[in-house]
Amino acid sequence: MDTIRLLLPLENTQHIDVIQYYITCAFMRNPSFDNLIKLSQLLDHEISSTDQLSAEQLDCVRYLYRDWGYCHLGEKLTKSQEKKLFTIDGTAHAPGHFLAAIDFAKLNPKDNISLMRFGLMLLTHSALKDHLTLPKIQAIEQLLANTEQMPNCTYHNPNSYKKVITLVIYNSLVFSYSLWLLFHTNFILS
Amino acid sequence: MIILFITGLTLISIACLLYGFSITYILNHILIILFPGALIWVSINKYTSYQHPLRKKITKILSAWEKDTGKSISQLTFILNLSEHHIDISLSSNLEEHLSMKYGECYLNGYIKDTGEFFLTIAHPTNQLLDIAALWDEVCKTKIKFSTLCLCCAPNQLDSLGKKLENEWRFVTKVLLEAKRVSLMINHSILAQSMYYLNEFGTLPPALTVTPTNKITQLYHQLNKQLDIFIETLFSQRLELCNVAPVNIEQKRQLLYLPLEIVNLKNGLMSAAGNIISAGAPLQSIVFQLSQQSPKKQAFDYYTSLSRMTLPITVLAICSTLIYFSLEKRIATQLQHLTGPELVSYLQKIEGKNTNRPLARKQIAALQLSLMHQFPHDEVSLYRKLLSNKNTHLSLKIWTVHHITNHTLTDNQALFLTKHWPIENTVNLTLPLSQIAQIIPSEQIQNTCQIINYSDINSCANTLSKIHAYHKAEKQLTKIEKTLLPIYTIDSEYAIRQLSYLANNAKLIGEDALKTLSQLSRHLDTTLQNRANGIKSTIDLLQSENGQFIISQLLKLHQLNNVVESNKDAHLTMQLAYQSDDHPLQQLRLVTESLSTHNKHWLESIFAPVKEHLSTKATAYIHERWEEEIANKLAHILNQYPFNQDSSIQAPASDLYQLFGNDQLIDTFFNQYISAFVQEEDSLIVPKPLNLGVTIPKNMLLGLMYTKILQCAIDIKDNHLHAAWAVNIVEKTHPVSSVKLYTGSQSVMLQQRESQTVHWDSRQPIGIDISLESGEIINVAKDTEWGILALLESFTKEENTYTYHDSNQRWHIKFKLAPRHPINLLSDNIIAQIKEDLSTR
């Protein structure tokens, strides 16, 4: 499945959120190294054009995803594979700092809302032990609750009755007014 | 069907009875047989359905539920589960299973929702359609009416649903077509579980609705829009749902995948909906769970009922608006036939109703415009200035309205018009103060000056008052002048009595006028004082002997006028007036010449009405006589040759004689009707300079003049015309040897140095023989009434000489004609001039 089909109905949602959701789902459905590399590259490509995140935040997003995927992989990676995965913008990073990266996002919650929401999604579906993730999840939820209004999930009825209602009300008013006019006009004629 | 058939027959029978058709007898017998049969058939059918075990069981379940809960069953839904999976009701909240049966290989289950909705599902583990159809037949036999049919499919069946409905699922298509309301349910265990968590811990969007449409593109658009919102709603809840719902890791993942799953299902859903609609089934909603809120009770029905109301209400609105406009037009037509106070009264009535204000205002504006049209432009500027200014005193406005409506309105009506006069601040007043003073009454001068933007209000008021006083005095003087000799000049009988009295009581003349003049004298300026003096001199004149003479002559004039009844009488009277110096009109004319200018004008104004009356009637009489005696005959002659050059008819001498002959019609007319009013001056007939009003039309005077001319140019006899000319050859070229002119028996050889007299007689032919040296003789001749004119038309004319050219221009002759009459008929172009001057009647 390509990202376009997902992006179309979610055109009102931030592009980066949709991409993050897509790569998360896509990896969980096929947790392999090659897929992780492919999705990481997709992430790198998609977020390179965004101006919503600073360079530091971008690096954090990239690392978070890579390390989250790394944890999910059942297989042991070779040194070269690790290097390939964790080399971001020419800089090699060490694996295993996923939670530290989450903590980085928590340092400045107001500026890192997007980062925290991505982190929360990854934490929720993390391969790490619950006792490690649950406190972080609760903390991020708390921070998000304090810093932003959760997106409304209110469903709005797709059937637009406004036009019909307007037409009916307008014509009813015209009819009533005409009747009223007729009554008075007849009165004059009589 | 049977009921309908019988009803139809009954109606036909009633119709036949009403119209007395003989077929009634047969129809009645058919009805007598059919009606009880149909009743029995329906009763048996009903009884069988009530006794059906499935119906009994379902009825029992529903009754028990109603009894237990105290609620009533609100809706019955039939679910045709073709998804090959059992519907997991544990994932649908508030739903309880009350029926579980097996019919062959098929499963039959019944669920009741706490809201009173009953769901009956039938399913087969391997979708054996024959078994399902058999069970369906049994369900049909129960005669239970389901409000909705729900087709339950698995997600993987959606893409191929169209083909299935056309082929192996044709039975399903038939069932779908029988339903009044169809919904599509997607049955998938993981999807249902995710939807369950969504419903429990988040917000489950309501079912997707499908509004009736004939276009598949519209349907796709509708569904696409709803699915996008559906996906967006799920996406927005993805994080919270995974954390809040007490689920395991796999379920968490499924919850996360939910938006993605719906995105994957999107095309299949739209395709399936399109196929169901294309099959003709009334698809109205798509659900993912039995308990999913269906919008049909709330929004859909509301929308449908509103949609249904739209057209009739629109039609009603249009009709009522059109009726109103026609009535309004009727009122407008009615208003057009009203004028003056009736119109204003009607407008007041209309204006009182808010409804007709625009109409009333339009009519008021039209009335205001028409009122203003009767006045000159300058005067209108004053009225507009006064009425359109909001600062104008109300009494002045009312006076203005009364003035422009000639005081035909009541004060209330005038007030109404002033209230609705449009306010304008830029009316340009073009009427000078002198004229304003003549219009405005003295009591409104101050109010007027406040409005007309004069530099100084007091100065304006002062000026207007002075002008006003002047015009008032002038009017009084004019009135005195008119009533100085109080006679009713139009009615002579009345005037005779008045003049007879005045003749005996001359001293009474001007008595009151003198008193008024003495009162006025203090307020009169020089001009008016001179006029007052003139009036005094007129009074003196009337009280003198000369005045007695004037009165006596006026009395005689009115006595003469009193006996004039016809135009002929008036003509006779005016003939006498022009001819006799003793005639009162002549006497009065002579007296006026000896009077001062003022008295002259005054006296002329006294007898002018009688003079004009008599002269107008006399002139009319002359016209009548001319039209009756001359005009037609003259027009007839003028339409013939030679007066009309294009005519082929020659004006006969007898007709010419009858009209223009000596002492004939025109001469007689002149002597009888005109001679008294005209005189000869330098051979011209002109009106006498007596200024007594009789005017002779120009064409009559010209007619008389041309009669004299014709009589001088030719001898007009009762049977022929005659004229004579002296003729001699001026020039002849080789090879002409001699020229001979002949008329009738007279033949004249033309000489170069000696004139010969030629007599033209209209009864005789006229011609010319030109002898050439070769012995050849060329003859040119005319034998018509006006032969002389016709003959000379073939010659080139130059003053009195006429030239004849050979057709090859080899030779020519030139001769001269000198008239023996005072006027030359040939050379003076008389004929053409007569036609031109007398043709204008």
Looking at this protein, list some descriptive labels.
heterodimer, A: 190 residues, mainly alpha, 9 helices, 2% strand, elongated, B: alpha+beta, eight-stranded mixed sheet, six-stranded antiparallel sheet
List the helices and strands and how they pair.
The complex is a heterodimer of chains A (190) and B (841).
Chain A: H1 3-7, H2 15-29, H3 33-48, H4 55-72, H5 79-86, E1 87-88, E2 91-92, H6 98-107, H7 113-124, H8 130-147, H9 162-189
Chain B: H1 2-19, H2 24-50, H3 53-69, E1 75-81, E2 95-103, E3 106-113, E4 117-123, H4 129-141, E5 148-153, H5 161-166, H6 170-178, E6 182-186, H7 189-201, E7 208-209, H8 216-236, H9 238-244, H10 249-278, E8 283-287, H11 296-336, H12 340-351, H13 357-373, H14 377-388, H15 394-404, H16 411-419, H17 433-439, H18 445-451, H19 457-483, H20 492-504, H21 511-520, H22 526-543, H23 545-563, H24 567-579, H25 584-594, H26 597-638, H27 653-660, H28 665-674, E9 678-681, E10 684-687, H29 698-713, E11 715-716, E12 721-732, E13 736-743, E14 746-749, E15 756-761, E16 766-772, E17 777-782, H30 787-792, E18 796-798, E19 801-805, E20 812-819, H31 830-839
Parallel strand pairs in B: 1-4, 1-5, 5-6, 6-8
Antiparallel strand pairs in B: 2-3, 3-4, 7-8, 9-10, 11-12, 12-15, 12-20, 13-14, 13-16, 16-17, 18-19, 19-20
Describe the structure.
- The complex is a heterodimer of chains A (190) and B (841).
- Chain A is mostly helical and 190 residues long.
- Helices cover 68% and strands 2% of the residues of chain A.
- Chain A contains 9 helices and 2 strands; from the N terminus they run H-H-H-H-H-E-E-H-H-H-H.
- Chain A has a two-stranded antiparallel sheet with strand order 1-2.
- In chain A, helix 2 (15-29) packs parallel to helix 7, helix 4 runs antiparallel to helix 6 (98-107) and helix 7 (113-124) packs antiparallel against helix 8.
- The N and C termini of chain A lie far apart (77 Å).
- Chain B is α+β, with helices and mostly antiparallel strands and 841 residues long.
- Chain B has an 8-stranded mixed β-sheet. In chain B, strands 11, 12, 15, 18, 19 and 20 form a 6-stranded antiparallel β-sheet that branches. A 4-stranded antiparallel β-sheet of chain B has the order 14-13-16-17.
- The longest helix of chain B has 42 residues, at 597-638.
- Chain B is elongated and about 155 Å long.
- The two termini of chain B are 94 Å apart.
- Classes of the chains: A mainly alpha (190), B alpha+beta (841).
